[in-house]
Write a sequence for this structure.
């Protein structure tokens, strides 16, 4: 069930690349009783849009459904309900050449550069593999040229790495190679799922710089999936907070950093403000427990069992997203 | 008063087919009584190997090849097997990286902690179980859950159980190796608060090993920065964040605070750490260093005190 409010948000801006409408994704739960198959409600009614050229950060803890949302948009996981419109057309309807074009336009960068590269392929083969599949740049020379150009753009000296295997590269170099691979087909939209969380701090910022530079050079649009508010803050135009398969809050990055209405956003924010925060700020959050299971998620607001600001309604009905300031949407009955 | 731990010129090497890898290359530091010292550095810098060496847990092809580890009145490197058994857990206990995922899946949480107690102390099973219950309640696990199996616990609860186990024998020194790394931000914060609380309650000395400087900002009294098997800098926590002197440390601090200032390019340290199997003359950071001079490729800088309680191993700092 989509509330009218959600649809309104989706419609309000016209220059959209994506419209996600009431997306639901369920997975069968492992174990449990034989005749009572339970489901994991990984994503449970999520609507939002992504504008052309926008960098949108989807922030949440593990179990929030953020990775699943990314995978559904990449058409790697089918939704149980809802639709994803890419420039006005439902991606579920894409077949044949249309699907191929979509796969070209939308690329993913994964979290773990140790897992996401094929250990048996050299850097050259890794980067040119998608070109071969898509049948572009058939000529070996052109491929090499393109590959060298891509490696340069992601900040690698091609002569050093082009014939190497992944195990010969450092973590940061591997992640640069995965970025180059994602760029090989000149995509328009990139889903980056925790692109720096496996990397050492000294390397993290250089990868974020590369992503930001490439966005300018190619006019890309990003969905950046992260648990790290600092990463979201640095890279994105807009921040969206997810919790247990629902959206809690969304606002422009500056607006979000200035004020978080949703108690959960507050909690995330204070967990991160570690360099400057004081004990008092954190104090009231000390005993708020952990994210619940998505198998039997709490009724009403998903966050209510942990929320120090909950009111009577919170365990009865899910709060709809409402606009509390311009472009600032919050799903909470007792916004702070 | 004696420090809880004094490590002097510790050296650990791994003897591999590619040659000797000097994982820990002559490091010295202390953890005072009741003090929390953070040992921070990137993956591969030797910080976990240092912890393993302190507990004499380095396994072949690795070997402790020199130095001294003095703890609670004893030279750890001279202990025999029997003495080692009473030293580990009782004097120094360790929260291993990923320990929350290595709890035995077929035993109840309470029983696992009780077993750790009976192995090291001559107490009855009844007493051991009571101790386990008490520790679990201290770390915030309710009595009704102590007979659960690990899979019934969330990640944060498992990490609490691991902390309870590490403290069950009231050690003097706790070594915590990346105790919050696999946890979500909010749970990470809760576990850090728990460790702070346990530190106060038991008057623990703590060696806190992490790749994430920001977790140390509030928790540690002092920080030692490790790079490629050596200490680059040690200083009080405030001092280290406000006046980092080693170019590597200032790079780390800048790339950290860079994420709290928006706009413009993020600061980052170019390159990646050196291959430790190769013989490196001079300073191991020089290839990534913005202020390296000729002196840096000739001689390895020593860790010298440049102001009170602030030690730096860098030619450009110590030579003016």
């Amino acid at each position: 069930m989509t509330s009218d409010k959600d649809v309104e948000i989706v419609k309000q801006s016209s220059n959209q690349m994506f419209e996600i409408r009431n997306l639901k994704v369920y997975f069968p739960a492992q174990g449990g009783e034989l005749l009572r198959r339970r489901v994991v409600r990984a994503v449970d009614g999520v609507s939002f849009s992504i504008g052309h050229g926008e960098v949108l950060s989807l922030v949440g803890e593990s179990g929030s459904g953020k990775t699943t949302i990314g995978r559904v948009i990449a058409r790697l996981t089918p939704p149980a309900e809802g639709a994803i419109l890419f420039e006005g057309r439902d991606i579920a309807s894409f077949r044949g050449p249309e699907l191929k074009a979509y796969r070209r336009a939308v690329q993913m960068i994964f979290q773990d550069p140790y897992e996401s590269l094929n250990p048996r392929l050299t850097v050259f083969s890794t980067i040119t593999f998608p070109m071969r599949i898509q049948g572009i740049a058939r000529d070996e020379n052109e491929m090499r040229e393109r590959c060298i150009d891509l490696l340069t753009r992601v900040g690698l000296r091609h002569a050093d790495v082009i014939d190497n295997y992944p195990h010969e590269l450092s973590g940061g170099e591997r992640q640069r190679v995965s970025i180059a691979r994602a760029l090989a087909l000149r995509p328009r939209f990139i889903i980056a799922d925790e692109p720096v969380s496996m990397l050492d701090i000294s390397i993290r910022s250089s990868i974020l710089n590369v992503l930001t530079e490439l966005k300018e050079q190619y006019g890309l649009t990003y969905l950046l999936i992260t648990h790290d508010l600092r990463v979201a803050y640095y890279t994105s135009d807009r921040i969206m907070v997810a919790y247990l398969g629902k959206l809690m809050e969304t606002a422009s990055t500056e607006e979000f950093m200035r004020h978080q209405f949703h108690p959960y956003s507050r909690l995330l924010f204070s967990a991160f403000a570690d360099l400057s925060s004081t004990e008092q700020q954190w104090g009231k959050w000390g005993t708020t427990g952990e994210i619940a299971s998505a198998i039997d998620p709490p009724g009403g607001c998903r966050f209510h069992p942990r929320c120090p600001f909950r009111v009577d309604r919170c365990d009865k009905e899910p709060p709809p997203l409402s606009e509390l300031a311009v472009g600032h949407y919050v799903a909470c009955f007792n916004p702070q | 008063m004696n420090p809880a731990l004094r490590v002097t010129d510790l050296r650990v090497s791994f003897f591999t087919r590619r040659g000797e890898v000097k994982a820990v290359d002559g490091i010295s530091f202390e953890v005072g009584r009741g003090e929390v010292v953070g040992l921070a550095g990137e993956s591969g810098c030797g910080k976990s190997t240092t912890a393993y060496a302190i507990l004499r847990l380095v396994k072949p092809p690795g070997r402790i090849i020199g130095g001294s580890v003095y703890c609670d009145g004893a030279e750890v490197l001279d202990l025999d097997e029997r003495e080692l058994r009473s030293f580990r857990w009782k004097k120094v206990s360790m929260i291993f990286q990923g320990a929350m995922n290595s709890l035995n899946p077929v035993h109840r949480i309470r029983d696992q902690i009780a077993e750790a107690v009976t192995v090291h102390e001559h107490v009855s099973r009844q007493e051991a179980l009571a101790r386990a219950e008490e520790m679990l309640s201290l770390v915030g696990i309710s009595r009704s859950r102590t007979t659960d199996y690990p899979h019934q616990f969330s990640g944060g609860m498992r990490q609490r159980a691991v902390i309870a186990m590490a403290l069950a024998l009231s050690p003097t020194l706790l070594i915590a190796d990346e105790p919050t790394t696999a946890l979500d931000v909010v749970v990470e914060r809760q576990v850090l608060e728990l460790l702070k609380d346990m530190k106060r309650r038991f008057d623990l000395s703590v060696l806190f090993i992490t790749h994430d400087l920001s977790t140390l900002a509030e928790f540690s009294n002092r920080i030692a920065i490790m790079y490629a098997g050596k200490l680059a800098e040690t200083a009080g926590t405030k001092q280290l964040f406000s006046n980092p002197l080693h170019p590597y440390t200032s790079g780390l601090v800048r790339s950290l605070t860079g994420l709290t200032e928006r706009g413009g390019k993020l600061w980052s340290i170019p390159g990646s750490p050196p291959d430790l199997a190769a013989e490196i003359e001079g300073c191991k950071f020089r290839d990534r260093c913005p202020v390296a001079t000729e002196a840096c490729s000739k001689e390895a800088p020593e860790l010298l005190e440049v102001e009170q309680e602030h030690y730096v191993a860098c030619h450009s700092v110590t030579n003016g």
The radius of gyration of chain A is 21 Å. Residues 153 and 217 of chain A are 9 Å apart (CA to CA).
